[in-house]
Amino acid sequence: MVLRPPRLRDARTWSEIRLRNEQWLSPWEPTSPHTWEERNSPGSWPALHSALRSAARRGTMLPFMVYYGGRLVGQMNVSNVVHGALRSCTVGYWVDSVVAGRNVTPTALALVIDHCFNEVQLHRVEVDIRPENAPSLRVVEKLGLRREGFYERFLDIDGAWRDHIAFAVTYEELYGRSMVGRLAALPPEPSWRGVR
Ligand SMILES: CC(C)(COP(=O)(O)OP(=O)(O)OC[C@H]1O[C@@H](n2cnc3c(N)ncnc32)[C@H](O)[C@@H]1OP(=O)(O)O)[C@@H](O)C(=O)NCCC(=O)NCCS
């Protein structure tokens, strides 16, 4: 698996995946006045790419393209990066449905959390998930993220204000180990399945 910053030449592959995965992705994406085609055509990539890169230059975001088996399969964006006393961020992600269920996202998230703690010197990583999103809840479960709270009508997703469960991990919770190591060591069985 490789994570790297977005490039302008990702346009065609990114658009092909996004257009093919409309039903898979749209229930979990921000509300937009534009159609899925408009938002995900190759022509929409340069503006998005430029917004991601400039947020990265400002230090408010770390945008990653996720590669698996040599192919682009998704994105993982570290957003809301705050330094100072808070030193926290929020991570969002998606993958192509054809690679779903292969631990791509838990592995990518573990790598990103380790990067945020070690290279970026953040203290806390948060992931916010709709209670209906069972696959995504399973991702944070595999990494042992702590359930931190329930945000009512938190984000404007797929046409409405949606409740989210907040999960988080702080640096101390890893006891000097890496999140990649924690992922490898955790039992495959759920520890809190059913908790909402
Ligand atoms: C959530 C998501 C990123 C998980 O990525 P992933 O790389 O498939 O993660 P995992 O391999 O750990 O799979 C997680 C769970 O998804 C479920 N799953 C596996 N294949 C699936 C499929 N084809 N369809 C639906 N769910 C599937 C399984 O319950 C799996 O848990 P398991 O490994 O214990 O069986 C992915 O499902 C996705 O992109 N969904 C659409 C966008 C989205 O929900 N983004 C997150 C918003 S918070």
Short summary of the structure?
This protein has 196 residues and is of the alpha+beta class. The chain is built from seven helices and seven strands.
Summing up helix and strand content along with how strands pair, one would put the structural category as alpha+beta
Small molecules (ligands, ions, cofactors) in the structure: coenzyme A
- Characterize the largest beta sheet: strand count, sense, and whether it forms a barrel: 7 strands, mixed
Strands, total number: 7
User: How many domains, in number, for the residues?
Assistant: 1
Global Rg: 16 Å
Distance between the termini: 31 Å
Shape: globular
Largest beta sheet: what is the strand line-up? Answer: 1-2-3-4-5-7-6
Count, helices: 7
**CATH architecture grouping:** 3-Layer(aba) Sandwich
Order of helices and strands: EHHHHEEEHEHEEH
Beta content: 25-35%
CATH topology: Aminopeptidase
Q: Kindly state the mean pLDDT as a whole number?
A: 95
